[in-house]
Amino acid sequence: MKEQKLSKPPPSLNRMRTFEIFVQNGFSELELASVTTTLQIANQIRTEPLFKWQFVSDKPGLVKGSSGVLVRAAPAIENHGLADWMVVIGSEKPATDVWLKRARYMQRQGLMTILLSGAATAYIKATKITDGAVTTHWRDSSILHETGYYPRLTSRFSEKSRGVITAAGSGSTAELLIGIIAEFMSPHEVAELGSHMLIHTIRRSTTEQPKHMADNTNLFDDRISQALSLMENAIEEPLSVRELTQKMGLSQRQLERIFNAVFEMSPARFYRKLRAKRALVLLDETQISLADVACATGFTSAGTLSKAFRDTFGETPSEMRTRKKTKLLDYVVDS
């Protein structure tokens, strides 16, 4: 019996795969590093490098990240020099003008666009798609649900619809990239890549995002995790301390003692601070009224929200909004 030779994969599978990494001022350095590091290590694992990438931007030259990191980017021309994938890194104030047109052109060419966190949020707002599913970072999802109707929005790590992948980004970016390039690598190479990056379990795209502190089960004992879960799932209609203790099967004194030991504050104060932090997100990222923010975060009035907000952050919501006026123009108006 003759020995069978293993057939080589088609040459098309071995060709160089290209990524265009789109950055804008205020980009997430974590997401950028996750993309480039994943591709770099994947190339090191393979006998021949398979992936290459370049940085592009709507404002070419030096682009500054949210923490001050500088990246030199080439100009992104609407329908010229397309890569196999365009990855749009999330940023503080994403402008969709250039990359959204580019993404639509890539769709027509059968090429893939990957939108991370803030970029995914901007896309969801701009397109309001009615078929397929979309997702973004859970922090932005909560704002979207408060300010509009987005029936196709999920809380999974990533979704694919019409040639566009929307994703939570942040710490899940590396796993998303591994999932994308896995079809061009052998199973043992994918396993080696995960091991090299110290990823114990590569989570699937359908995994629900960990939204709450209580999801970090290694940080707290079971009683604290249960209390946090109850609080975080009842922001709009907060539970009383008595209701918390009844649901947990503890006395109020026991709960007070546990919270003082871990957080150095009472459960009621911790809960109020938690809701004030959720209010901060809505106040900072939206223009909804103070009364509506109070209602969405379980405060009986704008006045009670203002007091809790000042106790937590040292200023009232109105003072905070005045200090952080919305920038409507991206240029200077000459006087």
Report on the architecture of this protein.
The chain is an alpha/beta fold and 335 residues long. Helix content is 44%, strand content 13%. It has 2 domains: 182 residues, 3-Layer(aba) Sandwich (Rossmann fold), CATH 3.40.50.880; 111 residues, Homeodomain-like (Arc Repressor Mutant, subunit A). Strands 3-4-2-1-5-6-10-9 form an 8-stranded mixed beta sheet, with helices on both faces. It has a two-stranded parallel ribbon with strand order 7-8. Helix 2 runs parallel beside helix 6, helix 2 packs across helix 7 and helix 11 crosses helix 13. The longest helix has 19 residues. The radius of gyration is 23 Å and the shape is globular.
How much of the sequence is in beta strands? 5-15%
Mean pLDDT: 87
What is the molecular shape? globular
The appropriate CATH architecture of the largest domain is 3-Layer(aba) Sandwich
User: Which secondary-structure class do the elements indicate?
Assistant: alpha/beta
CATH topology-level name of the largest domain: Rossmann fold
CATH level-four homologous superfamily name of the largest domain = Class I glutamine amidotransferase (GATase) domain
The amount of helix comes to 40-55%
List how many beta strands DSSP finds.
Answer: 10
Q: Which sequence of SSEs, written as H and E, runs from N to C? A: HEHEEEEHEHEHEEEHHHHHHHHH
Low-confidence stretches: 1-11, 326-335
Number of domains: 2
Give keywords:
Rossmann fold, 8-stranded mixed sheet, 335 residues, disordered C terminus, single chain, globular, alpha/beta, 2 domains, two-stranded parallel sheet, Arc Repressor Mutant, subunit A
